UniProtKB/TrEMBL annotation:
Pathway: Protein modification; protein glycosylation. One of its GO terms (molecular function) is dolichyl-phosphate beta-glucosyltransferase activity. It is found in: Endoplasmic reticulum membrane; Membrane. GO terms for cellular component: membrane. It comes from Kribbella qitaiheensis. InterPro entries: DPG_synthase, Glyco_trans_2-like, GtrA_DPMS_TM, Nucleotide-diphossugar_trans. This is dolichyl-phosphate beta-glucosyltransferase.
Length: 406
């Protein structure tokens, strides 16, 4: 993107019923931009559906502070507010951040600089990368990590943090992508990133310092339900992204669904071999030891072999680097599988004092199939996540720029 003169950045702050935090935090943001940010920047307060004095306060701030404006969107929805303001903006780089300023503002320059330079297309703050310093409640931490693991397992994403309220996009990229984004609420961020990744666009990641807002208004249960519906919709999505690739000269990439299907087939083939080996080992050891002990040892031996085979065959990881880490993580998935099969055996022996050996095998095989689904999800999203190629770029160089500088 060619920019003449000083690049212009517009930072959108979407708000709803934030009359207490809006004034102090917008003044703090404006002061930072005026004293420590090298690019010309405007702040847009995007009020989406407030029922308190938020919009009136925003208008007063726009009158008081140079480089601040306020817009009113009658319907609620963070995604709706961002889409409307970004679509009409004339700035070269479009960014947004949460009104609570949970993210340290020193990360703003590393966020937008690669977009100004034309090096990247989209930039995100990440709380889940090495170098990030995060203070938040265990519940929020678990939900965030679980959500991003789910995205990796279901949509084969490569970015590390979908929902950090700290993102930026080049205007020319936004013009192409925004009309394709359907969600108008919290899933907007995820959908935008998934589409960008599938189009082969370059996503720049910046580790951030982040402190949890104890007065967060996010309704977790409602947001989780909306996110799950969004993931289900995106898994069926047939959006044509080829025009976006052509516009920005990005190479065509393998269809993530085709790549995922191939990976599943390879995983299933390894699973069949592992299951056969498990059954043989179990039958051999069952003659000399109790069912639970035979089950544990057979699972442990086959788990090591299963992780090694999946590492190389299914996920394409070569060399000895991180092999021990992968095996240790594989053993965690083994523990989950063992708990499923052990509990199945316990239930069987509770119901039938001396079940037939064939019945034991049937029950254990069914439990192993359930454990296999869990194992694939964890392999996909966690065990090999540092080294395996992400599915959207399975046959092309990685397009995720995981910047570790702050």
């Amino acid at each position: 993107m060619q920019i003449s003169g000083r690049p212009r950045v517009e930072i959108v702050v979407p708000v709803k019923n934030e009359e207490y935090d809006l004034g102090p935090n917008i003044r703090r943001l404006r002061e930072f931009l005026d004293t420590a940010f090298p690019f010309a920047a405007e702040v847009c307060i995007a009020d989406n559906g407030s029922t308190d004095a938020t919009f009136e306060i925003g208008c007063l701030l726009a009158t008081e502070l140079s480089g601040v404006r306020a817009v009113r969107i009658e319907e609620p929805g963070r995604g709706r507010a961002l889409k409307q303001v970004w679509s009409s903006s004339g700035a070269d780089v479009l960014a947004y951040l949460d009104v609570d300023l949970s993210t340290n503002l020193n990360a703003l320059l590393p966020l937008v600089a690669p977009l100004v330079a034309g090096h990247s297309d989209v930039a995100i703050g990440t709380r889940l990368a090495r170098g990030s310093r995060v203070v938040r409640r265990p519940k929020r931490e678990a939900i965030s990590r679980g959500y991003n693991l789910l995205l990796r397992a279901t949509l084969a994403t490569g970015f590390s943090d979908a929902q950090c309220g700290f993102k930026a996009i080049r205007r020319d990229v936004a013009v192409e992508l925004l009309p394709l984004v359907e969600d108008t609420s919290w899933f907007f961020d995820t959908e935008l990133l998934v589409l960008a990744e599938r189009a082969g666009l370059r996503i720049h990641e910046v580790p951030v310092d982040w402190v949890d807002d104890l007065d967060s208004r996010v309704k977790i249960a409602k947001t989780v339900a909306e996110d799950l519906r969004g993931i289900a919709r995106m898994s069926r999505s047939r959006v044509d992204l080829e025009p976006v690739r052509r516009t920005f000269g990005r190479p065509a990439i393998a269809d993530p669904k085709t790549a995922l299907a191939a990976r599943v087939l390879r995983f299933c083939a390894v699973g069949v071999l592992s299951t056969l080996a498990y059954i043989l080992l179990y039958l051999v050891m069952r003659h000399a030891m109790p069912a639970q002990v035979a089950n544990l040892l057979a699972l442990l031996v086959t788990a090591v072999g299963n992780t090694a085979l999946n590492r190389r065959v299914t996920f394409g990881v070569r060399g000895g680097q991180n092999q021990v880490k992968h095996q240790l993580r594989g053993l965690v998935t083994f523990a989950i599988g063992w708990s499923l099969t052990a509990s199945s055996l316990w239930l069987l022996h509770t119901a039938v004092a001396v079940p037939a050996r064939g019945v034991e095998i049937v029950v254990l095989t069914a439990a192993n199939l359930a454990a296999t689904l869990v194992r694939f999800s964890l392999f996909q999203s966690w065990v090999f996540d540092d080294d395996a190629p992400t599915l959207p770029t399975f046959e092309t160089p990685a397009l995720i720029d995981n910047t570790r500088s702050h």
